[in-house]
Amino acid sequence: MKILAVAGSNSDTSINKLLVSYAASLIENAEVEIVDMNDFEMPIYKHQREVESGVPQEAKNFAEKIDVADLLLISLSEHNGTYSTAFKNVFDWTSRIKDRAVWNEKPMLLMATAPGARGGLGVLEAAEKRFPLHGGNIVDTFTLPFFNDNFDKEANKISNEEKDSELKEKIQKISAIESILEK
């Protein structure tokens, strides 16, 4: 099984990258690629730019990674209640590829974390509404509030037993769906 793990942040110290990496590590016998948004840096989307220059190769490369994946794990960084600019720009450009649904109906576990009590709930709610309109097959969602209290960076895992069990159940659920799709 090929997993594409996306952290919707361009931060070098992204807590969402830590979360999505941990989630990916919970799936046995998987080939995992962890995406760095910095590898897909492009000019900010503008219709005139698209008309003049077309869709950048970086957006096409991102789409290709989605296409070869069996399963998507996406952990979104929340900036002012919605996506980070880095993620939104990649999403916008990818949505401009002709005859393409961004997420290509790939099963996904949609996640978010943040240092505060809501755990990125605002961005998760925005994505739950938007992604299905762009081929998002959201199987389940997960939020981790109070990241610094609930994630052990040294051990690279969730330290809150209840939240860790919740994530493991959701990983098991999405892994089972992928196994069914393979048959």
UniProtKB/TrEMBL annotation:
Protein source organism: Chryseobacterium zhengzhouense
The enzyme's E.C. designation: 1.-.-.-
Alphabetized SUPFAM superfamilies for the sequence: Flavoproteins (SSF52218)
Keyword Oxidoreductase: yes
Protein name as it appears in the record: NADPH-dependent FMN reductase
Record keyword Oxidoreductase present: yes
Superkingdom, taxonomy of origin: Bacteria
Pfam families in UniProt: FMN_red
Residue spans crossing the bilayer: none
UniProt keyword list: Oxidoreductase
GO MF annotations in UniProt: oxidoreductase activity
NADPH-dependent FMN reductase-like domain residues: 1-142
InterPro entries to which the protein is assigned, alphabetical: Flavoprotein-like_sf (IPR029039), FMN_Rdtase-like_dom (IPR005025), NAD(P)H-dep_reductase (IPR050712)
